[in-house]
UniProtKB/TrEMBL annotation:
Coiled coil: none annotated. Its cofactor is Zn(2+). GO terms for biological process: cysteinyl-tRNA aminoacylation. This is Cysteine--tRNA ligase. Binds 1 zinc ion per subunit.
């Protein structure tokens, strides 16, 4: 029983050997909450949800950290006079959480926001400066950059030489020694709100994107952890820069780099910039959420999933096939359970072997359907013991994959118009209260809280955010 995983850095399968025996630690790059989730975001979260479930099944005590990038150029750019950057970030974060929940993605062990770890980011930048790998801009702007020429292994993850790389486009190059140097700290600009900057030894500003994940993974998982995951599009520059700055700071960082494949539309990369994104709610509205999960996890997590769109509408072909396939599984379980109560049994060896082999879900799902066919044949011949055993194995496989139709999460559609309206209203008031507090208008902030309490809504102010619940 050895779990094997493909390491993007070495470009080969490797035995999973955790830093701490009996435990598994994963850090997965979560969303930049600038706008709503598309199906590529959901596919990535789902891939590491299945990894987590399998590692837990194999007996590992598993911690999964998935961050939220709630401060970024794009978040600031998408803010409006009517919706501040932090209100936008919080609203979109909830959209992501709902999209993940809709397809059965378990909540991460920790889900830190970047804005909650600013001190740790500053500390890490200071270490890099002390070690000679980073420098404040000479123009006194408060920008701080990583010196890529100071680290000979820069490019190790994507196997590029520095001279072949494109210039780093994450900051104004005015204070850079090399155009490929990337931003660790970005000075506040005159047109940016004061609430979007923090004090630092170099001046007011905010962290660069890459330093955020290095600091948060260290904060929640330690200097060394097992798996760093994310979409294939993050390999460069984000993950390359993470690896470089963390290694240069003397951290062990990730033992394995794992990347899930992209989702394309009609063979073209799906991205917000191209305007061809298929948003999560569109797919969930086309077929049942459990079928979306089945559709997304059946291909290997490192493969490309191509979704077809005709005349601007999501084509139902592949999704319809997935729906039919999953209905055959459900139909068998219902008929088997009607004959004799079904309890989850043992996993077939072939299923477990496929999952141990870099989470080979196509082979695992093939075993699932083979077992369903064998169970149907047994029912047809009135061989109840064989049919019951097959159903027990099918249920065990479905539970490991997060596809048990009896799981309460699939009992009703996600959300609903009334719930969505309530959430939007409360979140708007929470954002308004936060803005009032930032301007020290505590009377207004207390008035909003009192109004919500009167309406039966309780607020809880945490370190990183305010959460609400119905009293």
């Amino acid at each position: 029983m050895t779990v094997r995983i493909y390491d993007s850095r070495s470009q080969q399968l490797t035995d999973f050997a955790p830093v701490h025996p009996g435990r598994a630690s994963l850090y997965v790059c979560g969303p930049t909450v600038q706008s709503g989730p598309h199906i590529g975001h959901v596919r990535s979260a789902l891939a590491y949800d299945v990894w987590r479930r399998w590692l837990e099944h194999r007996g590992y005590r598993t911690e999964l950290v998935r961050n939220v990038t709630d401060i970024d150029d794009k978040v600031l750019a998408n803010a409006t006079d009517d919706e501040s950057w932090f209100a936008l970030a919080y609203r979109v974060e909830r959209e992501f959480s709902e999209a993940y929940r809709a397809v059965g993605v378990l909540p991460p062990t920790y889900e830190p926001r970047a804005t909650g770890s600013i001190p740790e980011m500053i500390e890490l930048i200071e270490q890099l400066i002390e070690r000679g790998h980073a420098y404040p801009a000479a123009d006194g702007s408060a920008d701080v950059y990583f010196d890529v020429r100071s680290w000979p292994e820069y490019g190790a993850l994507t196997r590029q030489s520095v001279d072949d790389m494109e210039d780093a486009a994450d900051a104004d190059p005015r204070g850079k020694r090399d155009p490929r140097d990337f931003a660790l700290w970005k000075a506040r600009k005159d047109d940016e709100p004061a609430s979007a900057s923090w004090s630092s030894p170099w001046g007011a500003g905010r962290p660069g994107w890459h330093i955020e994940c290095s600091a948060m993974s260290r904060k929640f998982l330690g200097d060394s952890f097992d798996i760093h995951g994310g979409g294939i599009d993050l390999r460069f520059p984000h993950h390359e820069n993470e690896l470089t700055q963390s290694s240069a700071a003397g951290l062990g960082f990730a033992s394995v780099w794992s990347h899930n494949g992209a989702v394309t539309v009609n063979g073209t990369k799906m991205s917000k910039s191209l305007g061809n994104s298929i948003f999560a709610h569109e797919m969930v509205e086309t077929v049942r959420p459990i079928v979306v999960r089945y559709f997304l996890l059946t291909p290997h997590y490192r493969s490309v999933i191509d979704v077809r769109v005709v005349d601007g509408e999501l084509e139902n072909g592949s999704l319809a096939e997935a729906a039919s396939a999953f209905e055959r599984i459900e139909d068998f379980l219902e008929r088997a359970d009607a004959a004799a109560a079904v309890e989850a049994g043992e996993l077939p060896e072939a299923f477990a072997a496929a999952m141990d082999d870099d989470l080979s879900t196509p082979q695992a799902v093939a075993v699932l359907h083979e077992t369903v066919r064998a169970g149907n044949a047994a029912l047809a011949s009135d061989d109840l013991p064989t049919a019951t055993a097959a159903a027990a194995s099918v249920l065990a496989m479905l539970r490991v994959l997060g596809l048990d139709p009896a799981d309460p999460i699939w009992a009703a559609p996600a959300g609903g118009a009334e719930a969505d309206a309530l959430a939007a209203l409360v979140e708007s008031l929470i954002a308004e209260r936060a803005e009032a507090r930032s301007h020290r208008d505590f009377a207004r902030a207390d008035g909003i809280r009192n109004s919500l309490v009167t309406a039966g809504i309780e607020l809880e102010d945490g370190k990183d955010a305010t959460t609400w619940s119905i009293a």
